Structures are given as C-alpha cells and as structure tokens.
Amino acid sequence: MVRVIPMCGLCRRVCDEGLSARGGAGWVDFPSYLSRHVVSSSQIQFSSDYCNECRLSYNILKRYGT
Questions:
Q1: Is 15 in a helix, a strand, or coil?
Q2: What is the spatial order of strands in the sheet that 3-8 belongs to?
Q3: Beta bridge partners of 27
Q4: Are 5 and 45 spatial neighbours (Cβ–Cβ below 8 Å)?
Q5: pTM summary value
Q6: For 6-45, how does the pLDDT look when each residue is reduced to its tens digit (9 = 90+)?
Q7: How far apart are CA 21 and CA 16, in angstroms?
Q8: In the list 6, 12, 26, 42, which could disulfide-bond 19, CB 3.0-4.6 Å?
Q9: Number of domains, the chain
Q10: Residue 42's domain spans which residues?
Q11: Cα distance between the two ends of the chain
C-alpha cells in the first residue's frame, strides 16, 4: 500500500497527521517522520502542499509585495 504524504513546496517539511493529540497535523522534517513511522521508500509518494508557516509567509508577501 502506498502512503501519500503532503510535503511543503518551500521548506520541504512533511505533514505528520499523527502528531497532534486532537487529531490535527504537524509539519516535521522527513527524517523525524521516518523515525516515527516504519515505511520503506517504495511505499511513499509525496503530494505538494504548504505548511502553515510557509503559507502565512507567502500570503503576507503576496499581499504586500517585495
């Protein structure tokens, strides 16, 4: 079975949906993700997304320009 993992297109952190006690998601570096989950590289596919911090920074830059 292939696991699809969202990866931030800017900082390259991945979304770990098992981090939050309330069922939310946290963004961690890929080695940290691998240390928490036992998966082989053939079982992983990445999807493009933005973490909360990068999305906020991007929206601020988009609004006010550089």
A1: strand
A2: 26-28, 14-16, 3-8, 44-49
A3: 15
A4: yes
A5: 0.75
A6: 999 999 999 988 765 555 678 999 888 888 888 887 888 9
A7: 12
A8: 26
A9: 1
A10: 3-64
A11: 44
